[in-house]
Amino acid sequence: MRVEEVLEVIGSKESSSVSPWDKVIIAMIRRAKIRFNYKIWIVFDFANTFFMVLTYFLLAFIVKPESISQAGYGQSYFTFALIGIAVSHYVTASLRSLSITLRFEQFHGTLESVLSTPTSFIIIFLGDVLYYFLYSTAFLVLIIGIGLALNAALVINLETMLTLSILVILLVLANLPIGIISAAMVLRFKQGDPIGWLITWINNLLSGVFFPVLLLPTQLRFVSLLLPLTFSLDAIRYSLIWGANLLHSRIIRDILYMVIYIVVGYPISIKIFSIAYDSVRKRGELSAY
Amino acid sequence: MVLNVVSEVDEVLNIFQVKEKKHESFITRAVASLYYQLRILFEYRMAIAIDIIDITISVLIYYFVSFLISKQALSSLGYSPDYLAFAVLGISLSRYLWSSISRLAHKLSHEISEGTLESLVVADVDNLKSWLVGQIMYGFSWSSFWFVGAIIIGMILGAGISTNLLAWFQAIFVLLLTIVVHSGIGVIAAGMYIKHKELETMLFFLSVAMEFLGGVLYPISLLYNIAPLYYISLSLPFTHGLELFRRTLMDELPLLHPKMIFHMVFLIAFLPLVYLGFKVFNKYLEIAKKEGILAAY
After folding, report:
1. If you average pLDDT over residues A245-260, what whole number do you get?
2. Among partner residues A51, A63, A210, which is closest to B209 by beta-carbon distance?
3. In terms of C-beta density within 10 A (0-12 exposed, 13-18 middle, 19 or more buried), how is residue B6 classed?
4. Helices B129-156 and B83-101, axial angle in degrees (round to 10)
5. What distance in Å separates residue A7's CA from the closest CA in chain B?
6. Phi-psi region for residue B257, left (φ > 0), alpha (ψ -120 to 50) or beta?
7. B34 falls in which pLDDT band (50, 70, 90)?
8. Domain, as residue range, for A30
9. DSSP character for B222?
10. What pLDDT is attached to residue B86?
11. A5 lies in a domain?
12. DSSP 3-state assignment of B69?
């Protein structure tokens, strides 16, 4: 084979018959196969969540109901905490899926190979996000199921489920820009995932996952308004506790906030990721970890 | 020339054939095992920083949750009405649970998957006992870092934890007793792990279940609402260790107080687990050596 021929093969654009959507599904199955090899983490994740739900079920017996009703979330602390636990799983998924993928490939020395394939990294990433989204949805169903078995005061009907689906998609989309920035840091600095962890903790503390935001001091309450999870949680709680749909004024307000995060967040995060990606490629550090 | 080469080869063979006589003491070897693990930890400074933030945020979450808790409800269950102190003492002690029960098996899993367990066994002189003790000491140091951090942050936020020196001596005694008992379970688990690799999943589950059933975040009497779980909880040493620990640092009750004796006797009854643990570990190590499965994973 002549050199020109080899160059032609390498330089030719892949004329694959596989559609981008099929590639996303393949990437998702690939991630699922890898994750399900680590059964210990899945068992740990489920057991942890199961016992966490039971813990808050028991803790609710000694909570003053008025502190929950003052915040507008009914009388049941268990229902309040149950929704917080279920929804925060999606945030962890959207914040950390890309950085976990990058770190995994980086650590096993396969990042360069993955990025050298004709398949765009965005497709592989979307496959991963889809996997984590479905995984978190399984958690949501499990948690709601346990909650209902323990008499959580949830309004479950077609309208609230439709509202919940849209709010969850907006929640993931609103949090993904922070996930993209976190991944850019992993790519550039090759250190665990400090931003992902930090935002996950700040979310747990300030977004009202375990207690109403009203309990926070004024300054911290202002910080909580900068977190998309605060609005997602408020809307989801309002829908599942009071049966409100997408046309309710409070839910419309929360959706508007999430749309602002999406519109502002994506251009900024993609720009930061591109800078980190180009810098790593120029330095030839794609395979370093 | 030929004679020279022969004598050199003999010298080398002699060196290989000489059995190493000089062994460091058991304590020195255990401390060496602790030291190398600490060296590894300090290489990961980011992990230490993440741990510090984790401690701070965990305590802060329960600081805010404490505003939701009814003081009357907590008092009616027989505790001081300070939920922050209750939760801080619970989460700080629970860290020892993971390090006592699951860490050894997890560490063995790591050594096996990295292919270094066989090398450890080859260099071993006491059936890995000093290595195990060093690793237990490391788990203790790491959990103590969490323990001290959580208690300090809790006290800064106003948790009503005793500052009485005598109460603290008693609390440290209870803490050590709890750790020793659970380390016995951990050594048994680590031994069984050498042969039955699927056990690691079970151990994770066991740690999480014990943490839940021990009442880390809620008074154990609330488990009456799910009666079978209440009785399972009473059969676990962790439940009694935590109860003794809380009563000591929240109410300053002495060990001979009627509310304490039952828990104390129960915890002491588990002490033979430590002896049994090393026996089981030795047995499985011998089996693994004979079957040549030390490096298998």
Report:
1. 93
2. A51
3. exposed
4. 170
5. 40
6. beta
7. confident
8. 18-283
9. G
10. 94
11. no
12. strand
Location of structure tokens 């269950």: B77
Q: What is the dihedral of CA A24, A30, A32, A33, to 10 degrees?
A: 160
Q: Which among B46, B201, B211 is the nearest to A191, CB-wise? A: B46
Residue of A nearest to B216 (CA): A55
SS3 state of residue A240:
helix
Mutate to test the interface with B, among A37, A42, A55, A62 (most CBs of B within 10 A): A62
DSSP B131: H
Min Cα separation B76/chain A (Å)? 10
Report how far residue A209's alpha carbon sits from residue A223's, in angstroms, rounded to the nearest whole number.
15
> Per residue in A93-130, is it b (16+ CB within 10 Å) or e — as a string?
bbbbbbbbbbbebbeeeebeebbeeebebebbbbbbbb
In a domain, A11, yes or no: no
- Residue A180's nearest CA partner among A279, A102, A237 is A102
Q: Would you place residue A5 in the very low, low, confident or very high pLDDT band (cuts 50, 70, 90)?
A: low
> What pLDDT, on a 0 to 100 scale, did the predictor assign at position B87?
94
Question: CB contact, 8 Å: A169 with chain B?
Answer: no
Beta-carbon contacts of residue A1 (< 8 Å; ≥ 6 apart): none
Q: Which of residues 179-238 of B touch A (CB under 8 A)?
A: 200-201, 204-205, 208-209, 211-212, 216-219, 222-223, 225-226
Q: How many domains does one find in chain B?
A: 1
Q: Closest residue of B to A204, CA-based? A: B61
* Unique residue bearing structure tokens 């983490």: A41
Count of domains in chain A? 1
Tokens of B87: 């939760």
B64: which chain A residues are within 8 Å (Cβ-Cβ)? 205, 210-211, 215-216
- Name the region of B215 (left: φ>0; alpha: ψ -120 to 50; beta: rest): left
A55 within 8 A of B212, measured Cβ to Cβ: yes
Report helix, strand or coil for A207.
Answer: coil
* Residues A61-94 pLDDT 10s: 999 988 888 888 888 999 999 999 998 888 877 7
Does the residue B119 lie in any domain? yes
Residues B61/B178, Cβ–Cβ less than 8 Å: no
C-alpha span between A54 and A48 (Å, rounded): 10
A137 touches chain B (CB under 8 A): no
Instruction: Determine contact, residues B270/B237, Cβ cutoff 8 Å.
Output: yes
CA distance A206 to chain B (A): 9
Neighbours of B1 (CB within 10 A): 5
B46 touches chain A (CB under 8 A): yes
- Is residue B2 included in any domain, yes or no? no
What ipTM, to 2 d.p.? 0.82
Quick one: B88 exposed, middle or buried, by C-beta within 10 A (0-12, 13-18, 19+)? buried
- CB-CB neighbors (< 8 A) of A192 in chain B: 46-47, 50
pLDDT digits (tens, 9 = 90+) for B69-118: 999 998 888 888 899 999 999 999 888 877 777 677 777 777 777 777 77
| Structural domain includes residue A3 | no
Owner of token pair 């107080």: B257
Tokens of B12: 């080398």
